[in-house]
Amino acid sequence: MGKTSKDKRDIYYRLAKEEGWRARSAFKLLQINEEYNIFNGVLRAVDLCAAPGSWSQVLTKKLKENATNVNDVKIVAVDLQAMAALPGVKQIQGDITKVSTAHEIIKEFEGSQADLVVCDGAPDVTGLHDIDEYVQSQLLLAALNITTHVLKNGGVFVAKIFRGKDVTLLYSQLKQFFELVTVSKPRSSRNSSIEAFVICQNYTPPDGFVPTMINPLLDHKYCDFNQLTGPNRFIVPFNVCGDLSAYDSDTSYSLLLEGQSNYEYKEPVQGPINPPYKDILEKTKNIQL
After folding, report:
1. Which one, out of 9, 20, 71, 186, has a CA that is 20 to 30 A from the CA of 217?
2. Are 194 and 132 in contact (CB under 8 A)?
3. Half-sphere exposure (CA, 13 Å, Cβ side) for 207?
């Protein structure tokens, strides 16, 4: 019952396996693109916190449509964890908080900068929303920091964010670097989840800004954050993306969809490679814990 009940509970989990995506999160990026057309004219892209690789799969498929010569498309996937190889994707197993990783990315682009940077990274959630929101904000800032090293002026940055009562400061930080910042909730993202995605368009860093991994970004050098209260508080636009006729991620569907006569369980397209919990599971099986 475990396998079929999971399939029935999450329609996007099942569709991901049927369509060959490594994770259901591929639909989130596809729905974001439907709303914001973030892949328009993009030939060089960076996927931060890429494992297991579903967003890199989407980038590979969509960016090839922009090029007359597929060799012009360059995609770099970065993650601390190992990830199964993907055709056309250069993998860097590195830390996004280190400047050496930024240099490796630029090297892969042969000295050029990226048109698009995406990040679907998230911490292991605790269920305590305030803690999860804070840890996620630090991950987002780390992604933004390395993005300032590798993204060209006018580029686009898309990243996961946990929405909460104290995210105004984070929004204001993003507004210092991008002309337009929007928060969006794809239809494939569960309503019960506090996740959303920031779509930051037209990268325009402040005058005199010098990218550095030492700078925590959240400082008072480029604007006075004390003004972000009362009538001066900046409200970031929020919308929901994804066709209203699309599947609802919070609804349970029959295992037999329209046009299907029988149901066949399919294994995940690509499981994690050496995940952190693998050793714990082995010890548990051997009753060593």
Report:
1. 186
2. yes
3. 0
At 114 the three-state DSSP class reads strand
Report the length, in residues, of the chain.
289
Q: Can you tell me the distance from the alpha carbon of 68 to that of 128, in angstroms, rounded to the nearest whole number? A: 48
Average pLDDT over residues 15-32: 94
* 168 burial type by CB count under 10 A (0-12 exposed, 13-18 middle, 19+ buried): middle
3-state secondary structure of 270: coil
Higher pLDDT, 52 or 222: 52
Global pTM? 0.88
- The pLDDT of 76-104, averaged and rounded, is 93
The set of residues, in sequence order, having a beta carbon less than 8 Å from that of 69 and lying 6+ positions away, is none
- Mean pLDDT lowest for which of 63-67, 193-197, 219-223? 219-223
Q: Compute the mean pLDDT over every residue in the chain, rounded to the nearest whole number.
A: 85
| Alpha helix segments (H runs only) across 20-111 | 26-36, 54-63, 99-108
Q: How far is CA 183 from CA 165, 174, 200, 237, in A?
A: 14, 11, 9, 6
Number of Cβ atoms within 10 Å of the Cβ of 108: 19
Judging by DSSP bridges, how do beta strands 114-119 and 151-162 pair with one another? Answer: parallel
Query: How far apart are the C-alpha atoms of 103 and 108, rounded to whole Å?
Result: 9
Q: Is 165 a catalytic residue?
A: no
